[in-house]
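Re: the multi-chain job from yesterday

Posting the exact lines I submitted so nobody has to dig through the queue logs.
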Amino acid sequence: MSKPLSFFGGFKLTFQHLGKLPVTTSYPQAKRAKQPRFHGRHVLNRYEDGMEKCIGCELCAGVCPANCIHVRGLDNPPDHPVSPGERYGYIYEINYLRCIHCDMCVEACPTQAITESKMFEFSFTNRADAIYTKAELVVDDNGFPKKLPWEDWREGEAEMTGGWMRATSPAGDADFEGIVQWTGDLGFGVQAPEAGQSANRDDEKTGSKQLRRAFFRHLNAVDVNDDQRGLQGMMTMADEKMSAARKKMAERKAKKRAKS
Amino acid sequence: MTFLASVDPLFVHGHMSGVDILILLIRLVVGWAALMGAVTMMIWFERKAISGMQSRIGPQRWGPFGLLQTLADGIKLFFKEDLIPEQSDRFVFKLAPYLSLVPAIVTFAIIPVGGTMHIAGHTVLLQIANPPIGVLLMLAMSGLSVYGVMLAGWASGSKYPLISSVRASAQMISYEAAMGISIVTVALITGSLSTHNIVDAQGGWFWHWNVIRLGVVPFIIFWIAITAEMNRPPFDVVEAESELVGGFNTEYSSIRFALFYMAEFMNTITMSALIVTLFFGGPAGWVPPVAHLKWIFPILWFVIKTSIFCFCYVWFRAALPRFRYDQVMDLGWKRLIPLSLGWMLVVAGFIVKPAWGLLMAAVVLFASVLLGRAFMLGQSRETGAESVLPAIGRRPLPEEVLRAYTDRDVTITDDDEEDW
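And the result, structure tokens for all chains:
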């Protein structure tokens, strides 16, 4: 617990905040970045070859505490199979008037077919729109969620699907952390695991360095890498910034030379 | 014309020509417009400044930097449905907002905004009226504005506004005494109640200002007292949202609510201006020796000084938590009134003769020791070892009740708190 403010401390603090940037944004125009494991509406993923991942096993529907998922499986038609297995999800519906975004379906899914996007800003005007069917849930041919007219998608938001899956070891064992145990997604390939739960952190491989830097003020001391802690961390960051700036300068000079 | 001259509503002392009336009308209209403009700006400024202090953005949608937000709010409120509660006293319910708005406007009339101006051979004071009763008018108006709050709460026919209005009237009456006595010190040293004379007497540099001449104490007492008088934070127990929903104006909606809202901000400006008038020399300040600029600089000084105090009120709201109701009463009756009374006696003594002043100081010191002892005794009777009353000052905390049940004697130390 921090020390309580003295009488004039309150005046000083409020006055200092006048000069600081606001922490809020003017919402509909600008949005704040969402947390990496934010739970939004679901997507049904596809394999890299375009096949659907869902095998119609109904585990998600069984585990759903809100009873909002309705799945029926069907044998794959032999001449044009939908999924690589024996069966596929013939009907897949999620009722978003019921869904509580707990992500239990994502945990239950044996093929990582269902994951969550970061989309929570959707407002339908009738009950039929609230029930998302397969046509709306399955990702498009580039592997991105389908953008429905009543959803407010911004640039870059569609790329952040399935954070939870990449964050956790599917085996539930810390030893397996950082080890990929999932198949590739259409449009994304095999997504790198997100580090941060055990000592096994390969930032270069996982690409989560920027992420952790953005959140490092919110992390506990043990979760911050040695080279990012305290004075050393500040020096490293300054070093990196300097080298990046130098690189830019060098590029500019090279461009100028090329022009002249 | 003769009727106007005989009644003399604006204190022009008899001689009234057509030009006089025209100048008066211009003064009225300009003063009114300036006050209204200042109110809209003040509402915007308060919202913007407090949002800055709370790391928010604040109004931004209407006009550049959200400057037209107040106008938009006003238009919206004007077209809202005018609800009058079933249980209310309809006439009083409709009357109350005006009882709170009109005194706020009238008080501004006595504020000297600038020095003098020469128009068409007439010497014009840059204030709407300069009545010989001066600051007494302000006291009367602040007394009248209690009725606005009181009747609003009473006429609403609802319990929260009623509690709020009872609090408001008690609080306003308590602080009126301290405020009046600190104004008496100003009147003593000036020898006049007229605001124009008060400002004239402080002309020149800042050591001529009353805040220095009277010692800083009357100014601080006056400042605290009018903050309580206006029901602004930290004295806003009247509209304590956590206890009383919205306070005395809970049942009000549409334009009637807007009137209360306007009155509140008008009071903030007027009282800031009044502090400047009574203690900070009003429009006094450096004036460049250029003939055409001589009238604008006093106005500029006045506006700057007033805005500083307006900002301070916003700052108070951001920085200070609300007082408890009994603390408000304690501060008013036990501290401010004795202090202002003692200080007034000392000032009066020094005005007569330094020896009298020293004698008064000794008497006041002795009396304050006695008073302090009396307060201590009263305190110990109430909550101390010899208390015969149940302890009402402090209720047991939930965890203490729990501890009594589990019969464990654990006290929270500072070390424990650090661990949380």
